[in-house]
What does this fold into?
Amino acid sequence: MNDADHRQFLIGNYAPPSIEIVRGEGSKLWDANGEEYLDFTSGIAVSTLGHGNPRWIEALTRQAGKLAHCSNLFSIPEQVRLAKRLVSRIGPGRMLFCNSGAEANEGLIKLARLAGSKAGGPLEGKTRILVAENGFHGRTMGALSATESPKYRKRFEPLLKGFDFAPLNDLPAFEEKIEDDTVAVLVESIQGEGGIREAEDEFLQGLQKICREKQVLLMLDEVQSGIGRTGDFLGYQKAGISPDAVALAKGLGGGFPIGAFWVEESWSDLFEPGSHGTTFGGSPLACSVAHAVLDVIEEEGLVESVRKKGSVFKEGLSRLAQNYPKFVSNVRGRGFMLALVMTEDPGKFIEALRKKGLLVVAAAGNCVRFLPPLTSDLTEIEKALHVTEAVLKTLQTKPRA
Ligand SMILES: Cc1ncc(COP(=O)(O)O)c(C=O)c1O
It folds into this structure.
């Protein structure tokens, strides 16, 4: 790796990377030195089908040869078809496409503003958005305003006004914080960056009830927890709720940038020509790739298989937590969105896993996140558990510094 060039030509926005990844296949990645890794990061919950999936490549190359981009000046058949497909998975409503998770959440924030600015509408004059503490919604200034943690906000203030925060799973706190001028509530069904914290079914059901009673929009950020990752197509679906708006990105393109948001039918015509827009959003290329991701998910029954494989994985991680309580205090999550909660900062542990060929991601609260591609099989899960246990064993036998 050319460290000097990396430092000289790239803005130092990301922590200095330890390895240079050059190739991937299935759940495996290889670095520039030919070292092989089991990729349980999925590029932070993105590579739904793993790397180099033939169906994904075929869709990408076929569409690239036909038409990559034409902008939303024109109707794009792949986009219309993708919208129809997602609506059939989410509920009666409409889609708008964009390019990332932060942008999808910007769309939800704009929906809230549009609802509040509709003269004579039920939410007229309301502007405040209530969000869960410890959540993460992206780095653009709007999405950042919805992100409570000072770690992300500091040095970028003043941010957008009008965001309130309440602790996840604390229904009375949410109810109390919905004020007369609150227009919407925004939560993740499983907080990802916040440390794999699940919104309980009863909480989501109660929140929906309160939002309906108080006539407030219920908006779900499914950017990380969506597209099969939790063992449901969308994480909130486990609770059986019907939100008013949903943000998607990450896993939808399986490695090709695409974001989207869905708005329930009765609110969806708040957007009119010119309300919002993006040059690249919903391109023929991005939408064709997303179709391939959904095709494979459906044909291979990946949502159901993630639910099953995820519970085997979680059992294995729970055994490790039981056997190594000095280092692991808890296991959280479901499906392929799991975390070991460590008793101290997991930086060195994650590095030790990498040295043994397993790639994982840190999250807030001393978490080690396991986000395998949905296509990862039980052999790979066993391998990940084996490597994790091997590293825990070395910690056990080593006196702490
Ligand atoms: C729940 C959630 N929302 C939004 C985002 C932002 O997505 P992006 O990085 O694509 O802008 C993320 C990214 O980690 C996320 O986990």
Q: What stands out?
A: Residues 302-323 form the longest helix (22 residues). The chain has a mean pLDDT of 97. DSSP finds 14 helices and 17 strands in the chain.
